[in-house]
């Protein structure tokens, strides 16, 4: 995954980016009276509003000097896709089957701008999770928020602006905690919320408990961005999560014991992973056009070696340490022309997709 932040992405010219942000209401700079009037008038848009002719984003095109189609055309003409491998975009246009246009792929239901998701890195967007139809968790600036589409109410779950530290006493917990953590990825499942940071930080909170349960540094590598998190349940019922990092590591954490229990190492930064429904296979993609399927049980576990012996009482002090090795590859995945950032399994356990 690129170490550059969104400001250096060069996806489209900076001036155009600012103008688009103002039009769509995604800008942090809404001091302008005109922009504020647009925001207030179009904070929510329903399916009925759209049937009556309102724009799904709430943009009042009739008051602007350009139409929606005209703006989209100019934006597409000036758009330059970010490429990790030069010319991969041009090659994909020749090799990939184009999607038929004009089809109805989804049905618009509702759009709200009362909550503002925040993206700190242009390639890392796993920052909004819907656990039910009425429960949405998202990053908004330095806060993890819960928002209800049913009541349109929101409340803060974790404040990351200041000091965050665990309140549970357990070996392996990073009791010092973290200050002003910039979250790069988020996951919420099984009543557990896990936030990963740009310096390898991991912050875990059980939603039915007070305070933070677990803090840890998954890596101390300078390039340790947490790219992806996946929460899953073992056959025993214990809750685990996988953390994918830019240091080429994939780690399995046990939230019953609050410790890392498995470590996989690859030749490239790991951008995304997905565990098969039976928990036996992990699809892994990253800073390589090719991905892999690996045996979920083939990583390395913690071991210990004698550190020193206290001769008077015949007590041996052990120091635990981690070994990692290349995981057992079940199958290599080819077909992509650039790096991949997404993967998902079908519930049937036989079909999966990477993107």
UniProtKB/TrEMBL annotation:
InterPro entries, per the entry: Quinoprotein_ADH-like_sf, WD40/YVTN_repeat-like_dom_sf
Protein name as annotated: WD repeat-containing protein
SUPFAM superfamilies tied to this protein: Quinoprotein alcohol dehydrogenase-like
Biological source species: Aegilops tauschii subsp. strangulata (Goatgrass)
Entries under PANTHER family matching the protein: OS08G0497600 PROTEIN (PTHR43991:SF39), WD REPEAT PROTEIN (AFU_ORTHOLOGUE AFUA_8G05640)-RELATED (PTHR43991)
Domain of life assignment: Eukaryota
């Amino acid at each position: 995954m690129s170490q550059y932040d969104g400001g250096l992405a060069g996806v489209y010219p900076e001036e155009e980016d600012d103008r688009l942000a103002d039009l769509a209401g995604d800008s942090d700079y809404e001091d302008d009276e005109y922009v504020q009037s647009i925001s207030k008038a179009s904070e929510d848009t329903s399916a009925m509003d759209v049937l009556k002719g309102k724009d799904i984003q709430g943009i009042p095109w009739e008051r602007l000097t350009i139409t929606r189609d005209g703006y989209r055309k100019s934006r597409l003409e000036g758009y330059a896709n970010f490429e990790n491998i030069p010319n991969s975009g041009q090659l994909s246009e020749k090799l990939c089957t184009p999607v038929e246009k004009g089809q109805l792929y989804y049905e618009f239901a509702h759009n709200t701008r009362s909550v503002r998701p925040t993206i700190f890195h242009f390639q890392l967007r796993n920052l909004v999770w819907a656990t039910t139809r009425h429960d949405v968790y998202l990053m908004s600036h330095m806060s993890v928020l819960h928002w209800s589409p049913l009541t349109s109410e929101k409340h803060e779950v974790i404040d990351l602006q200041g000091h965050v530290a665990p309140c549970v006493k357990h070996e392996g917990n990073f009791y010092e905690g973290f200050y002003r953590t910039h979250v790069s990825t988020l996951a919420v499942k099984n009543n557990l919320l896990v936030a990963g940071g740009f310096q390898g930080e991991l912050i875990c909170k059980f939603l039915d408990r007070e305070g933070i349960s677990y803090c840890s540094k998954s890596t101390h590598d300078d390039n340790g961005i947490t790219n992806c998190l996946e929460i899953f349940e073992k056959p025993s019922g214990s809750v685990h999560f996988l953390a994918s990092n830019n240091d080429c590591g994939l780690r399995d954490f046990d939230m019953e014991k609050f410790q890392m229990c498995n470590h996989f190492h690859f030749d490239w930064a790991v951008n995304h992973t997905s565990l098969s429904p039976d928990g036996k296979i992990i699809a892994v993609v990253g800073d390589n056009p090719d991905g892999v399927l690996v045996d979920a049980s083939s990583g390395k576990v913690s071991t210990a070696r004698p550190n020193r012996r206290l001769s008077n009482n015949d007590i041996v002090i052990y120091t635990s340490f981690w070994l990692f090795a290349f995981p057992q590859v079940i199958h290599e995945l080819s077909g992509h022309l650039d790096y991949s950032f997404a993967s998902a399994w079908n519930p049937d356990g036989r079909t999966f997709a990477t993107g």
